[in-house]
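Quick log. Single chain, no ligands specified.
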Amino acid sequence: MNQYKILLSTSVLLFITSGILYALALTNYVGFSVAAAFLLLSIAVKYTNNYKGFSFTLVIFSAVSLSLFQPQLFIVWGGYKLTGLIVPLIQLIMFGMGTSMSMKDFALVVQTPKGVIIGVVSQFAIMPTLGFLLASISKLPPEIAAGIILIGCSPSGLASNVMSYLAKANLALSITITSITTLIAPFVTPLLMKLFAGEMVEIDVTKMMWDINKMILLPIGAGLIFNQFLKGKSKWMDSAMPIVSMAGITMIITIITASGRDNLLNIGPILIGIVVIHNTLGYLLGYWSGRLFKMPEQDCRTIAIEVGMQNGGLASGLAQQLGKAATMGLAPAVFGPFMNITGSILASYWHKREPKN
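-> predicted structure:
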């Protein structure tokens, strides 16, 4: 507890210092001060039971704060544009997902297909439609608005499995829905983007399919092979992959925030408001799609989380492949940290309430 108090006090002092530095127009130091404050706070919450789930999100806030105040640190290194790292990082994350998967993750498709079908259909019906409606009324520039649709057309994210576990939902169903939506994304996402965003940006369906295959199917396939033949034989790698995945997600969001900093500062409040609506309606409509078909409470919680939480990394990679990381990539960059906050809050709420059918 002493460590928690020391870290928390130091973090508060750094936030106060950041405000003073900003008031004195010493902006070159504000980013480092805010980043350090969030980083210490992320370590501090690990010592708590109720808030330790926010630790990873606070690490993202730390990196994003630095990228907003010091964007030059995350744009070019030695003449190399760091946006070129986005796709390799996604491939590394997807490889990590593959190493944690096995054929038993798909057993529910045969055993209890109803929940899987409702979850997958809800994922690719609710979020793309919401994204299109919100983008249409947002009055944002077409490329930025298309990013809202892009995050909606993406499959569910890996964080949804963690949140389902914490929410006392159906973890097996969560893993199955995440796996299936991810594996069919190379075919479904480009078609949905062409349908909903084709008038905003040019969408080459065939190229996008190949890009997603490179980012998803190939690395996941390699991860599955690793899991089949080497799982447990390289214990250091088994332990390292979750950490590598989290670091990769943080780096992707940081690079996109830095490259799109000016756009984000101009339209930030509007985009944040749209992300809030998109994310929360995803949870709400996902939950009630389960209730509509009389699914058990555990399954309804699972579908809510699967629908509301998207694969922001994949959306960011697609924006980069289209050469629009600084515009289309902004919505995924904002959606990622926000969904971790709302997902943690929702999971904590449900964790205290036993599911009743």
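The radius of gyration is 20 Å.
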